[in-house]
UniProtKB/TrEMBL annotation:
It catalyses: hydrolysis of (1->4)-alpha-D-glucosidic linkage in 4-alpha-D-[(1->4)-alpha-D-glucanosyl]n trehalose to yield trehalose and (1->4)-alpha-D-glucan. It comes from Streptomyces peucetius. This is Malto-oligosyltrehalose trehalohydrolase. Its EC number is 3.2.1.141. PANTHER family: 1,4-ALPHA-GLUCAN-BRANCHING ENZYME, MALTO-OLIGOSYLTREHALOSE TREHALOHYDROLASE. SUPFAM superfamilies: (Trans)glycosidases, E set domains. It comes from the Bacteria. Belongs to the glycosyl hydrolase 13 family.
Amino acid sequence: MLFEVWAPNAEERVTLWLEGAEHPMERAQGRDGWWVTEAAADDGARYGFALDGGPVRPDPRSRRQPDGPDGTSAVVDQDAYAWRKDWPGRGLKGAVLYELHIGTYTPEGTLDAAAARLGELAELGITHVELMPLCSFPGVHGWGYDGVSPWSVHEPYGGPTALKRFVDSAHGHGLGVVLDVVHNHLGPSGNHLPAYGPYFTDTHHTPWGTAINLDAPGSDEVRACLIGSALAWLRDYRLDGLRLDAVHALVDNRALTFLEELAAAVDSLAGDLGRPLFLIAESDQCDPRTTTPRSQGGLGLHAQWNDDFHHALHTALTGESQGYYGDFARAPMAALAKTLTRGFFHDGTYSAFRGRTHGRPLDVANTPAHRFLGYAQTHDQIGNRALGDRLSATLSPGLLACAAALVLTGPYTPMLFMGEEWGAATPWQYFTDHTDPELAEAVRVGRRREFAAHGWPEEQVPDPQDPATRERSCLDRSEREREPHAGLLAWHRELIALRRALPDLTDPDLAAVKVAFDEQARWLAYRRGDLRVAVNLAKEPAAIALGGGGRVAAAWGEVSPPDRDGVLRLPPQSCAVLADS
């Protein structure tokens, strides 16, 4: 088989180390910085590269790291797995996503253990599972955002073959699979890419240090490596889409941006494979160009997370006003109404949190609503809190039901975070398993100092390196059979079934959404076609003048149809979906 590596840092020679034998490599003709050689190798064969007589390092494009990112790579025969399901693909329109972390979805923390639970998600009505990052990182347990081998599958989760089994099983249940990938940085430990070439640049700096090289000398090959990795996930593992972490942190001053190039490559692959593929961006820029088609001057990504909707919903539910929530907390019901109808809250408005104006207006008449993901909770919004507390830690079941109604009947593509459907009481905390003692201590101290600045006593902030922190974050499925969890689970099933049955709930026309609210009384109602959704977040009953009747299609609590004057009376912290016929 052909072994090749981009190693422009090598001055004189590159050697392939394969199963204990050395094989000199030659410079590839017409490919600057590339080295190649042919050698016989079977699936699982261990190999690595040595530059100029230096240590043997893993392949920058390794598909498998059996001993972690500092060990040698292993050959993966992508044709060895016999796929059971002929999958036609599943696009994003009409989807309901479910964000899932393999390491805490089950106590075992493996892909095979998670696959055994996929029937629960299909029965719930989920259409796509969104997996948090799977790239190899040091240690066993972590969030995955410290990955250092962008083509590989974390071995403690089961490695490449286990991912194929997971995807095959998901497709067998009718579930698409989306993978969270990180292109804006690599982890602080186990990163061997700089030894090979200019994968990073001092030209720009990010919150994680020097930036991935997307626009400096040598960036053509770096971009090709990242795009090749993205296409490999979609092609070799038959994934349906990718979630792109923090694209606002990708520093790229080239005329053709990395994101445009990636989107074009994914669209081309979708054509070649004959099935839909999509990219979902995480971006805090409130810029419509992220999802605007390339033919219209945009980046051409297919969707993005809508954090503005989350922030407005969170402040309306909790009353919290710290940090970036402050911009939304001044009038949370108005903020929620704006995000339900205009997409972004910050669309050229002043942000006190940033100390400047932020965002750009969205053309709601020409932007399909399904291009935005709406959610009440995510791994970030839970795990980056000091205690990793979910909304269920402080909100009543009624308010959790209202949040579900706003997410699952709202105009955007809904997404749930694992366990949210039953109001899981388990926290989801920040945990790591750094093998470098100095790095482990730095993370531990840094985490405590971060929250000490906000008034948290150090002893109350969980130690990320303590195995108990991860264990506390694992879901407890026994909750599903007890109240109020069982009732919330049934409510989520009912709402998702309504979304699937009633076309008005997947209507992409954002301009058609009409909202009314009362800031002081804390109620909000909106119309979607022949449906009306009303939520009362207050501790007192609400009388909402809907201007018409209709039957109650679904409700949390005892709710009667509107009276003859078209007034709907909602009990405290309750909600209802009404249909005209």
